[in-house]
């Protein structure tokens, strides 16, 4: 019992229930409760969730990554350009994009661990470099800012089955989300590497004294985060059969937000990937629930902000309440 | 410990009750084909949805929205208007998905990126929702199963601007793109540059950030040093920035400036001779007409025979500016 009460994701679970109840009662009649309605917010939550899980692990390891937004644009464009311009197989293009993302993660990790600069600044720089090169290269090569035509790419069918198919009305990305959350949870809670992540973020000096390769752990987490961003890019490029140079803008902040909603501390050393996955679910439900409620889009951000603060408050309140109940 | 278990039980009960209550609400019946109502049928329960790509900071889209709202009021129908916060096609497609799940009687969309939006628009068509496209998408609407398009053809509009610009004798032009990623704007610039090239001039595209006027102004300023003598901006946001850049550089009047779309600033600029012309697509109609058309379609099953319902391009020049200004103040032009 005590172990359940102590879990950081408990507040997020209550947040999920509260947000769901709110929209179910307020917008239930207009399709929020229908399977098609659930499919629209689960699809958003699944893609953000994939990223938030990795971002929360990176945050537990004590670092931030703001470059994921432009990594999404860069990887999506890499896939589209290689297929559209060079006629590559979509799988080869996805592989190149994955390697590119791993290089970005490696570069971020090396600069942060070698120079001891704050990752906030280093990855902000990477964000701009990647975003600018994506726009520049794309316009140089194509004269445009959108590249489509992925449907004609070699082996598109198999990629579509894996990344963009549907089970009933539900997107297959939901299965990826669940799978990656389970895998990440296992790594974090059941393996030695998971312990190292907590150590690297919570007490790096103590961890180093105990022989934990702190720098290597952090670099590995930067690479994982970038790879997850590339995975989102793949989902979106395949699903929307192309890319544009602005795709993914703002995703870095959404992912951090989902992680924080899920109980991950901004200061590192504490958090949960299940919480981050639930945080992404809250985000998806709020984002689409507002549309179902028929709120004019001018007020959209007000609602989003208010609901998110509300969800964090519920989260914090519940956690405090549970700590008290334990005494 | 006991009180805590009690609370947990109560919480579970609340969840179960809420689920039971809300799920029992009747969902709207699926509208597979347009089911004309009796001529006297009230329009009160007709619900329509509009999803566009217009950013909130763009005055152009405020006029479209005024058209939507005025039509809804005039006809007595319910309309929801949605647009993503940034130029984000993935977010826009999800807004469409949500509207489709609500099963409206009709859907109005803009199609700036057919590749990215086709999936969601086709889903709406497959669900039996009549769809009309506005503003951008004149070249693709038919393939997606959209009934008709209300707007202007972008390439021709850009080319018209190019011809008008070339007639003033300019040789080296800039096309200022404030929404990188929007295929319609790419088409306008292409039309513009092609027309200028045909008249023997040269030119290039300059991309600026619409959300940051300072950024836009400074980029235009910097580009002017390359001997540019003509600028076409694709919207009021960047035309204001270009105007400020010309004033700052003291080249007002020497560099010809034309723009897409009208605002009070643009119109007074034309009147004062600071701008050569504005290409007008009468976007108020792009908001108003689809609401009328879809309401009629729902009520009586009638619809124009298809094709593009052109709302532009028209040109506002120094001679015609005065009478347009009054309407612009009312948010109609």
TrEMBL record, chain A:
Q: What is this protein called?
A: Xylose transport system permease protein XylH
| Superkingdom | Bacteria
Subcellular localization is given as: Cell membrane
Query: What is the membrane topology here?
Result: Multi-pass membrane protein
Give yes or no: UniProt keyword Repeat. no
Q: Which UniProt keywords apply?
A: Cell inner membrane, Cell membrane, Membrane, Sugar transport, Transmembrane, Transmembrane helix, Transport
Organism, by scientific name, is Stigmatella ashevillensis
The answer to whether the entry has keyword Membrane is yes
| One Pfam family from the record | BPD_transp_2
Q: Where is this chain primarily localised? A: membrane
* Annotated function: Part of the binding-protein-dependent transport system for D-xylose. Probably responsible for the translocation of the substrate across the membrane.
Transmembrane spans: 48-74, 86-107, 119-142, 163-189, 219-238, 259-287, 299-318
From TrEMBL, chain B:
Q: Would I find Signal among this entry's keywords?
A: yes
User: What is the protein name stated in its UniProt record?
Assistant: Sugar ABC transporter substrate-binding protein
UniProt-listed Gene3D superfamilies: 3.40.50.2300
What single Pfam family name could you report for this chain, choosing any that match?
A: Peripla_BP_4
| Span of domain Periplasmic binding protein | 49-297
Cross-referenced CDD domains: PBP1_ABC_sugar_binding-like
Please state where this protein is localized. Cell envelope
What span is annotated as the signal peptide, if there is one? 1-20
Q: Which family does it belong to?
A: Belongs to the bacterial solute-binding protein 2 family.
Q: Which UniProt keywords apply?
A: Signal
């Amino acid at each position: 019992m005590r172990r359940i009460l102590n879990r950081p994701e408990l507040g997020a679970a209550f947040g999920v229930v509260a947000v769901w109840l709110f929209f179910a009662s307020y917008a239930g009649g207009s399709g929020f409760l229908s399977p098609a309605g659930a499919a629209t917010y689960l699809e958003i939550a699944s893609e953000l969730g994939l990223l938030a899980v990795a971002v929360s692990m990176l945050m537990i390891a004590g670092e931030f990554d703001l470059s994921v937004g432009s990594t999404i644009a860069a990887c999506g464009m890499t896939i589209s350009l290689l297929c559209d311009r060079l006629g590559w197989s979509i799988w080869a293009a996805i592989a190149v994009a994955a390697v590119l993302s791993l290089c970005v993660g490696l570069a971020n990790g090396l600069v942060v661990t070698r120079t001891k600069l704050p990752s906030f600044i280093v990855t902000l720089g990477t964000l701009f470099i990647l975003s600018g090169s994506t726009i520049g290269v794309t316009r140089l090569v194509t004269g445009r800012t959108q590249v489509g035509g992925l449907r004609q790419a070699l082996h598109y069918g198999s990629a579509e089955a894996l990344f963009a198919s549907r089970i009933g009305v539900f997107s297959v990305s939901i299965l990826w989300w669940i799978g990656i959350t389970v895998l990440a949870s296992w790594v974090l809670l059941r393996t030695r590497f998971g312990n190292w992540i907590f150590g690297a973020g919570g007490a790096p000096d103590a961890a180093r004294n105990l022989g934990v390769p702190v720098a290597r752990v952090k670099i590995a987490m930067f690479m994982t985060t970038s790879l997850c961003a590339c995975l989102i890019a793949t989902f979106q490029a395949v699903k929307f059969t192309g890319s544009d140079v602005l795709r993914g803008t703002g995703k870095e902040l959404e992912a951090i937000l989902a992680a924080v909603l899920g109980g991950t501390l901004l200061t590192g050393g504490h958090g949960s990937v299940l919480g981050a996955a639930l945080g992404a679910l809250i985000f998806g439900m709020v984002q689409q629930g507002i549309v179902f409620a028929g709120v004019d889009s001018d007020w959209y951000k007000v609602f989003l902000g208010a609901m998110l603060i509300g969800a964090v408050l519920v989260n914090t309140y519940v956690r405090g309440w549970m700590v008290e109940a334990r005494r | 410990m006991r009180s805590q278990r009690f609370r947990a039980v109560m919480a579970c009960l609340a969840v179960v009750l809420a689920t039971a209550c809300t799920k029992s609400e009747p969902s709207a019946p699926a509208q597979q084909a347009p089911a004309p109502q009796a001529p006297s049928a009230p329009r009160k329960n007709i619900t329509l949805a509009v999803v566009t790509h217009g950013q909130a900071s763009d005055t152009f889209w405020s006029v479209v929205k005024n058209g939507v709202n005025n039509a809804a009021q005039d006809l007595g129908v319910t309309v929801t208007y949605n647009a993503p916060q940034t130029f984000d096609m993935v977010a826009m497609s999800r807004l469409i998905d949500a509207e489709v799940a609500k099963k409206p009687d009709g859907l109005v969309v803009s199609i700036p990126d057919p590749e990215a939006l086709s999936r969601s628009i086709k889903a709406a068509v497959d669900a039996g929702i009549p769809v009309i496209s506005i503003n951008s998408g004149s070249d693709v609407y038919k393939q997606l199963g959209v009934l008709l398009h209300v707007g202007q053809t972008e390439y021709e509009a850009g080319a018209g601007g190019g011809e008008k610009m070339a007639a003033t004798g300019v040789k080296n032009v800039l096309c200022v793109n404030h929404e990188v990623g929007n295929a319609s704007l790419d088409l306008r610039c292409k039309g513009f540059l092609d027309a200028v090239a045909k008249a023997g001039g040269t030119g290039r595209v300059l991309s600026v950030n619409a959300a940051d006027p300072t950024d836009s102004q400074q980029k235009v300023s910097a580009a002017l040093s390359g001997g540019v003598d003509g600028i076409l901006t694709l919207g009021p946001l960047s035309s204001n920035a270009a105007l400020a850049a010309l004033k700052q550089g003291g080249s007002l009047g020497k560099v010809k400036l034309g723009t897409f779309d009208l605002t009070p600033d643009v119109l007074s600029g034309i009147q004062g001779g600071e701008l050569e012309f504005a290409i007008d697509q009468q976007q108020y109609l792009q908001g108003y007409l689809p609401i009328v058309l879809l309401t009629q379609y729902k009520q009586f099953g009638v619809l124009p025979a298809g094709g593009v319902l052109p709302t532009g391009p028209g040109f506002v020049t120094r001679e015609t500016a005065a009478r347009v200004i009054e309407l612009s103040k009312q948010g109609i032009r």
